[in-house]
Amino acid sequence: MSGIDAVCVGETMAVLTSPEALAEGSRLSVGTGGAESNTAVALARLGHRAAWVSRVGDDPFGRIVTGAVARSGVDVRGVEVDPEHPTGLYVKDTAPGGAGVLYYRRGSAASTMSAADAEKVWSRGPRLVHLSGITPALSARCATLVEYLLDRRSGNGALRSFDVNHRPALWAAREAGPVLLDLARRADVVFVGRDEAERLWGTPAAEDVRAVLPEVPTLVVKDAAHGATCFDGAETVFVPAPPVEVVEEVGAGDAFAAGYLSGLLKGLPADRRLALGHAAAGEVLRSRGDTLESVPREPGL
User: Fold this and answer.
1) Which residues of 35-54 are buried (b: 16+ CB within 10 A; e: fewer)?
2) Residues catalogued as catalytic
């Protein structure tokens, strides 16, 4: 299928959630979770033609993941089923004082992605390709795929979007910092948290982040509940985040990216892109799910 608005590339795992202390042997519910597919689902909810490219295992978890993303309106024909490697898994222990999130993704099917998977992206003729800093941490082959997709000499003239999304559980800041900075410098649109950038690059303020990424055409620095700053060429725009009663934070950054990218695809000015990002993130923050379930209303419209 050609004419896709956005292709999102990266691993999605099966999610097992415990409503009580995991150590007590409580019953687990099964869901899905992955930054890039979360973004693809949110873009689909916002009315865009979105595709997700990845690999899953030939197992029940892989079928659960792919089915859930497909039912959300996302094109999953670029998802390869790997008979030799399992679908990644993570467990959420939501009880007070629980273990938090436990990952079981080493040697997963998605970690075997390589530059050969790029053709699945370009064959869809996307206007935009969205990646995150999670993927290069999975394996050297995955890192090569991200580098290749960010190379402006590859594929079509699609915009390259990169969410830094540093996960300390995958790699330490001292190792990840230089790699993620290099990848961000190759993108057209970059998303990064202010605190995340400080941890990786020693940049305490949004303007400091811009100073280390001056060549990026569009840079969005998110500062949690405070708001977000967009450096769009020579223009700098800040939009405060509306107050939200937070139920769970997981997935809110992916929804923010989708809201902003939706505005970009629609040709909206920077302030409205940021407002749509905040609105989408707010919908996820108010729920226990990782993905955008309802279409947010942009403030002021």
Assistant:
1) bbbbbbbbbbbbebbbbbbb
2) 254
Per domain, the residue ranges of the chain are 6-11+35-60+114-285
3-state secondary structure of 108: coil
Among the residue ranges 28-37, 119-128, 134-143, 288-297, the one predicted with the least confidence is 288-297
- Which token pair is 189? 């649109």
Whether the CB-CB separation of 236 and 230 falls below 8 Å is answered with yes
Residue corresponding to tokens 């995991």: 22
Share of the chain above pLDDT 70, in %: 90
| pLDDT, tens only, 31-72 | 898 999 999 999 999 999 999 999 999 999 999 999 999 999
Contact 137, 176 (CB under 8 A): yes
Backbone angles phi, psi at 148, to 5 degrees: -65, -45
Average the pLDDT over 113-118 and give the result: 96
- On the CB side of 112, CA atoms within 13 Å amount to 16
pTM above 0.90, yes or no: yes
Q: Which CATH class is domain 6-11+35-60+114-285?
A: alpha beta
